[in-house]
């Protein structure tokens, strides 16, 4: 799969005048441990850790949901396989900010607009009125 932009980090904060490029070479290997290695022209190698995790409670029961297409660019379709007369969809940024909330009644399929989303990784949280939750990762390109 193609690389996806998930954030920005200033590896050379001393360059406040922005007179020439002295920052990262452009390679950010993301290791299985979650550590990101940034090779900076001025300061050498830096090890970065994401310290703003997105947390959710564990679902009480398995929520059956399909989300497509993934990756997506303009629209996303959420299809709930469980029976639920009312449910809520939330589009969440990697930092945990709720970007969009939709309440759905008597429908198993809902379309979500991604037109205001920058390319990157997002989460779609689905919750039924019985409190059953599910979460899926999506990529916006």
Task: Give an account of the 3D structure.
With about 140 residues, this protein is mainly beta. The chain has two domains: about 45 residues, no CATH class; about 80 residues, Immunoglobulin-like (Sandwich). The chain contains no helices and nine strands. A hairpin with a 6-residue loop joins strand 3 and strand 4. The model has no long low-confidence stretch (mean pLDDT about 80).
- Annotation field: number of helices: 0
* N to C succession of SSEs: EEEEEEEEE
Strand order of the largest sheet: 6-5-8-9
**Gap between N and C termini:** 12 Å
- Note the main sheet: 4 strands, antiparallel
CATH architecture of the largest domain: Sandwich
Task: Report the portion of residues in β strands.
Answer: 35-45%
Mean pLDDT: 79
Helix content: under 10%
Number of strand segments? 9
Radius of gyration: 19 Å
**So what's the CATH class of the largest domain?**
Mainly Beta
Low-confidence stretches: none
Task: Assign an overall shape.
Answer: elongated
């Amino acid at each position: 799969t193609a690389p996806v932009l998930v954030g920005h980090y200033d590896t050379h904060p001393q360059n406040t005048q922005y007179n020439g490029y002295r920052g990262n070479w452009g390679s950010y290997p993301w290791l299985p441990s979650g550590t990101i290695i940034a090779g900076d022209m001025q300061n050498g190698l830096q090890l970065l850790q994401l310290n703003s995790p997105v947390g959710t409670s564990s679902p009480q029961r398995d929520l059956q949901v399909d989300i497509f297409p993934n990756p997506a660019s303009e629209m996303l379709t959420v299809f709930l396989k469980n029976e639920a007369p009312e449910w809520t969809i939330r589009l969440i940024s990697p930092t945990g900010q709720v970007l969009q909330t939709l309440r759905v009644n008597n429908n198993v399929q809902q379309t979500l607009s991604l037109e205001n989303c920058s390319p990157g990784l997002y989460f779609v949280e689905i919750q039924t009125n019985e409190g059953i939750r599910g979460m899926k990762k999506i990529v916006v390109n």
